[in-house]
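**Fold tokens**
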Amino acid sequence: MYDSGSEPASGLGIIFTILIVLLTIVFLALWIWGIYKATKTNDREIRTGRIFLHLIIWGGLAAAIIYAIKVTSNQNEDIKNRLYSYNPKIENQSSFREDSNKMQIAKIDKLLESKSITKEEHKKLKEKYTK
């Protein structure tokens, strides 16, 4: 039927994804750097406050971006599944059946070529899908 994985990726989508990944890496680097710098402070109260500040701000931003990427990719998959799934209410149902029958005939021809079925079986199956 339809293969949603064969669609070409849009250039803007790829650039956006790379930008988001780079931004996440920057946030994670700032998070690690901030925690490292906070642990080097001599004052105990300031050190604790800075550690929590960096944990919350930079770690939270990185986690939010990662979560947004995950949610967006799940929504895109859901949209693709809805677009390419069989819907019995569509008006163009006969076209869908014709495409499906053509695919079945191609599979039957491959089975005959690989000698998995006999010529008689091939003929019967082909008649079934050409009606």
About this structure: The radius of gyration is 28 Å.
